[in-house]
Design brief:
The chain is of the alpha/beta class. The chain is 40% helix and 16% strand. The chain binds zinc ion.
Length: 448
Amino acid sequence: MAINKFVAISLVSAVAVLGTACSVTAPQDSITVKPSKPKNIIMVVADGMGPAYTTAYRLYKNDPTTDEIEPTVLDQFLVGTARTYPASVSGYVTDSAASATALAAGVKTYNGAIGLDVDKNRVETVLQRAKKLGKRTGVAVTSQIVHATPASYIAHNESRRNYNQIADSFLDDRIDGKNIADVMLGGGWDYFIRDDRNLVAEFKDLGYQYADSYTELLALPSGKPTLGLFADMGLSKALDDSNPHRLSVLTESAIGHLENTNGFFLLVEASQVDWAGHANDIASAMGEMEDLEQTIKLLKNYVDMHPDTLVVLTADHSTGGLTIGADGDYRWSPEFIQNMKASVTVMSEQIIEQEDMALYAEDIFGFELNDEEKNHISGITSDMKPREREGVLKLLLDKRTNTGWTTSGHTGVDVEVYAFGTGAEAFAGNLNNTDIAKKIFSILGDVE
Ligand SMILES: [Zn+2]
């Protein structure tokens, strides 16, 4: 399984290299000097992805048959770091709403604020500016599309928890008479199809095409306003989803609908790195990172073919206090989570239906349990809450891999910034997260 993954990746890299070579020699590619301003901007937020995650992922993907620890696709695009703290009323540690508002609007605000400053005034976002400038706009995320990060680019609300109000504003708010986002892909049936209002039907009336499965999405004609919702709330975890690379599928589809002569602004969010961090679930964290890397690989190929595009990737904060090597032991063993057939969440439901729980766990984990671990697993009972059963499984994996966690919440460390394509050099150095929005505003320019 692990070997197949490496083979698959080298094949993809080979294709990427060939793709680059073709775009240089292709006769239609007359752009020898890059334009100073990108036509298209793709902002990627990996929610919760502090530096421990990017390092852990590099080690998780390492080919142990070579001495070198191979770089990830992300590594080649590192340009700097960003400070994540919110407005002083919320202390030093940000939530995803305040940090997304900082990344989207260039304003430090209180934790929980969606597109508002500390005084609850609406602040313009880069996505909204792009819309005013006649570009197409979109979001492609693995959370519900009304979750903090995408909401902060599109909407304004005093609380990130007002999901229904935020969904309403996706439809009701207008810029020059038009809806703010042309493409919205992610989860969220619970908020769009309600007893009091069916926003899916209303979006269809406005001319949006709609898909509620990946297959349907891929069958839709390109270049049209599109709403795609694929789950009640967030999408399934990468480890459990019918397509473990669902974010790259959504991103590719979004680009297909957004491309036009005026250019586009797209927000992509790997939303569930953060959720895995909150759950202290190392296997899911690596699964989400793998989907992110696949998405960045796709965007690299896109920029090779469309050099008038800028891609910026950062995190909004780190989550969980992830530690590579815990409790004074200088060992980290990610090889034990490379072959997981399902997440510990799914396992916690299935395991109580098994005759032999240890045998089942060995099958899903992909390694043999020792006696202590078998004993540990035998402590799982159907009386326990699913969350407690999940805890038993996570503890086993943390001990096997020697992974540590310090919190079920966020931490205040600086996060990495990656950029490539036209204008990437502007994002180098140690920035404030608000600088990222300010730089994108200056690239976009003012409305005449
Ligand atoms: Zn979070």
